[in-house]
Amino acid sequence: MKVRFLKRLMAYIIASQMLLSAMPTTVFAVDSKLIAASKAINWLKQNQNSNGSWGTLLNIMETSEVIACIAEDDFSNTDVQDRAISWLKSQNHRNNDELFRQLSVPALQAERGVENILNRQNPDGGWSIYWGYESDVLDTLLALDALMSGSLTKLDEARNGILYLVNTQNPNGGWSYVKEGESNEYLTAHAITILDKFKTSSGTTINSIEAALLRARPFLLSRIDGGSWGLNENNIKHTLFACEAIKNTNPDVFETAVEKVISVLQPNGSLFHSPSLTARLVYLLQLPDGPPAFL
Question: Residues 271-281: pLDDT tens digits?
Fold first, then answer.
């Protein structure tokens, strides 16, 4: 009796192993993404401040990023998003960086108006940290992100901003915080995403955009180290944005990097206890598959 039972058990184990080996690895990848996203969303819900914001020092940045990245349905019919938007509406921005982040939330842009972005655009097409200052890449990216957070209605202004980005690209294909500075992975990834988003939102493209993308993606891929662009608290943001930038052109690289990010999640579901990083991961995990972008 025992012999027959052991034979049946062994047969079951062998059959199970064969079935598991035949299953595509994407099944397990999808499961790990769903689990990570669920844990991250729960952490965000549990760590919202009593006033509706997230974070401590950079509340406007943290809160705007969470609301821009997380769909209302993901908060399971709670008042999490309503309280966050209410808090953001009550806050006065200290600079254009904070303003553009606030206006990336459609509810705030609808209330304050897109003119708050347009009237801060410089003659060269870019935007700056303070009104009247020299244009810089970061604030131009934030302004364009806000302009394209909904339907793109100000095509000419957005196109001028895009051309500013094209004109400030470094010879090696990247973008930097200051003119002729060292190319930065986060800024480059963000710029690629914005250029792609403009093509989709406007339904048009420009030869110079295609040329910029042809130089930018190889630069970004050349900065991969061990399957990612960084996994510590100081540089994991590079990986999160780079993954979005190459998702449709280099899906294998995307999958590898995402799994590496998931591997460093805290047990509580957060990325280094940071609301903005954790929300950005959820956004990344929920990105739909799209058609291959131009290389």
Answer: 999 999 999 99
